[in-house]
Amino acid sequence: MTETTRGAAEVPHANEASVAGPPHVSEPQEYDAILLAGFGGPEGQEDVIPFLRNVTRGRGIPDERLEEVATHYRHFGGVSPINEHNRQLRAALVEELRERGMTYPVYWGNRNWDPYLEDAVKEAAANGHTRLLAFATSAYSSYSSCRQYREDFARAITDTGLAGVVRIDKIRQFFDVPGFVQPFAEGVAAALHEFADDGLAPEEIRILFATHSIPTADAERSGPRELGLGEGGAYAAQHKAVGAQIMEQLTEEGKADHGTRWELVYQSRSGPPTQPWLEPDVCDRIAELPAEGVKAVAVVPLGFLSDHMEVLWDLDNEALEAAQEAGLKATRTPTPGVHHAFVSSVVDLLQERMAAVPPEERPHVTELGPWFDVCRPGCCENVRLGFRPAAAGIAP
């Protein structure tokens, strides 16, 4: 994927190799620390409502409505697994870096809960680390999974008074790097093997690749508009490309059959009924499958890096319950988590950006990759909020 650099465009808060806004950097860049950016989650019952207030800030949602969502967290003792996952991921990244002879410290900050990104940026700067290379724990293009993290970086720098001191670049989106895709492929292969052992024919099995639903208007604005990726924008296109690659790979390896059908479904919708969101819903599709001759379903959490709340509740609880009600044999396959192939790929991406590896030499498994180092102008607009200051991309 290529695009010409736009004249003298300047990227806010960027390091030297990225400041002019090239789609893929061509000059090696020195960094002095890694920044792990996460969503954040509550770690006790008393944290749940304050956390949800942070998530929904600016929308004026009363606590009574937040409590409806809070029941999901309260079911698990008020603890989201996402922070513990990021602790494990940070430790795995530090170990992988160490094994490669790289001594970069890894700072960790969240958007919505402690430790906050502002604190991570202040800590890094206090330690003399001002040239940061960020890895955000979301693989795809959309406002909440990419641009909002870039807004977080810009806000953290300006709110701490460190503009002009701290610079943050962000590695490219990793939806189609081999180490991210491999754990999902392994999970699908295992599910198909289990169903085959139960005597099910390929046409009786359905693979449902599940991801978080988002408003259709935001989905249409995901990724650079000039790419013309169609309905659902880059967000839907990237997921479909990865799903297709997984099934093609498994078929070539003899682990899947040409008769095994798959589709992309959505989950965790949270908007008002009057607002169109991406469909079909995973539970709605599961209810329809018996009429199509399906007897078993594998739910693959393709949009998720780890087993956080949308996986534990919306898939393990609601989707598998829907399968049981439909009389279907069902399984939910694993997320990448700290799978070694994934951790290794993240460090590969860090090294790739530092060394300015040419695009044609960068690993990717779909025709959409390798994605951009520097987000393009107008990428991933939020319809409700418009364009707010963001790092790691060309304005707006």
Q: Gap between N and C termini, in Å?
A: 21 Å
How many β-strand stretches? Answer: 8
| CATH class division of the largest domain | Alpha Beta
Mean pLDDT: 95
Biggest sheet features: 4 strands, parallel
CATH structural fold name of the largest domain: Rossmann fold
Described by the principal axes of the CA atoms, the overall outline is: globular
Strand order in the sheet with the most strands: 2-1-3-4
Radius of gyration: 21 Å
The total domain count is: 2
Structural class estimated from helices and strands? alpha/beta
Beta-strand portion reads 5-15%
Helix content: 25-40%
What is the helix tally?
11
Provide a descriptive summary of the structure in words:
The strands form two sheets. Strands 2-1-3-4 form a four-stranded parallel beta sheet, sandwiched between helices. Strands 6-5-7-8 form a four-stranded parallel beta sheet, sandwiched between helices. Helix 3 packs across helix 11, helix 4 packs across helix 5 and helix 6 runs antiparallel to helix 11. Helix content is 38%, strand content 11%. It has two domains: 165 residues, Rossmann fold (3-Layer(aba) Sandwich); 155 residues, Rossmann fold. The N terminus is likely disordered. It is of the alpha/beta class. It is built from eleven helices and eight strands. It starts with 32 loop residues before the first strand and ends in a 41-residue tail after the last helix.
